[in-house]
Design a protein that fits this description.
six-stranded mixed beta sheet; alpha+beta
Length: 345
């Protein structure tokens, strides 16, 4: 999840720390979040407007005629109003406060956990007392010029939430159960794998392209085909010019095998056809890397490992899993092993 964050790409010291000891990631994320919150508190937290309904002795904002008449407020010299009030208890600040509270439960260093709780308590004393907003409320929040400094703080809070809420399965660490849609989890998995390869392989001479669209070799077409012909969007493409290697990776957040008609387990045929099309459709363009490109279908697993390959028409296609129940160091080794890249740990 750390590799999936945009914030991590900007922090060279953080990259080095993770390379040296990936299991210290919770403390690293908590440290980043604390620094950003402390900086914002020193410069004053951003305020925002919230819609409020209140019965007042004078008009403020817009009059709520229905409630004013229903409760005969004018007879008592009152009026029901709807207005926007400036407050520090914004969804953004509540989200950051809750992130501090959550990540304090999983950090290893007691002093850092106390620092997170102390900052969360400080935010409460300042007036950030509301409940944590849901992901939808935070996603629609927009940053302006006056509050651009909040971006890195919220990015660190996002990262803390993602790290602190991965599972409620039995394990060595007690964490909370996330309330997330499967689409978001799939996207996080894809972005995390791409971020890992970007951070680790870029310095080894690889070029990493995430979410790249590749085209069909169309020789002729009917007038309406452009409206209905799907494009091909790859998850990750890795290129190493000196080694003459191209690896097209498609991440799938489900089981690598399924029940077949005539066997207990079989690869998912649709995925095989998909990666085959990605590879074969790019031949003949004069791109030497495309002529011998290999494909990788990468699925998550817990415990069971698969790493099989087949060569079809000069293209190696590998079907592999990465064990998300393993340690951070082991996951890193697995992600490099499926590419045939040595682990420099």
């Amino acid at each position: 999840m750390l590799y999936a964050s945009d914030l991590f790409r900007e922090l060279e010291k953080a990259k080095v720390a993770v390379e040296d000891n990936p299991d210290d990631i919770p403390d690293l994320v908590a440290e980043m979040l604390c620094r950003r919150v402390e900086r914002r508190i020193q410069r004053n937290l951003s305020y925002g407007y919230q819609s409020r309904d209140a019965v007042l002795g004078r008009v403020r904002g817009r009059i709520d005629l229905l409630n004013t008449e229903r409760h005969r407020l004018l007879d008592r010299g009152k009026v029901a109003c709807r207005f926007h009030a400036l407050t520090i208890d914004t969804a953004r600040n509540r989200y950051v406060r809750t992130a501090l509270e959550e990540i304090s439960k999983i950090v290893h260093r007691g002093a850092l956990a106390h620092r997170c709780r102390a900052l969360a308590a400080s935010l409460r004393r300042m007036g950030v007392t509301g409940k944590c907003p849901n992901r939808g409320e935070v996603s629609i929040d927009r940053f302006g010029r006056h509050d651009a400094d909040d971006q890195s703080m919220v990015a660190a809070a996002h990262l803390a939430f993602n790290l602190a809420l991965p599972t409620e399965a039995a394990g060595a660490k007690q964490l909370s159960l996330p309330d997330r849609e499967i689409t978001w989890i799939r996207k996080l998995y894809e972005k995390g794998v791409a971020g890992f390869y970007d951070v680790v392989l870029s310095k080894r001479g690889w070029r990493v392209d995430a979410g790249k669209t590749i085209g069909w070799q169309i020789e002729s077409k009917s007038p309406g085909i452009d409206k209905i012909l799907p494009s091909m969007r790859t998850d990750i493409i890795l290129d190493h010019l000196d080694a003459g290697r191209r690896i097209v990776i498609d991440t799938k957040f489900n089981s690598i095998v399924t029940r077949g008609w005539y066997r207990e387990e079989t690869l998912r045929s649709g995925y095989v056809y998909q990666i085959y099309a990605y590879l074969r459709s790019q031949e003949g363009h004069g791109d030497l890397l495309a002529e011998n490109a290999s494909g990788l279908l990468l699925h998550p697993s817990v415990g069971d490992m698969v790493n099989e390959s087949v060569v079809i028409q000069n293209h190696e296609i590998r079907f592999a899993t990465v064990d998300l129940g393993a340690t951070a160091k082991e996951i890193r080794e697995q992600l490099l092993q499926v590419l045939g890249v040595p682990y420099a740990g």
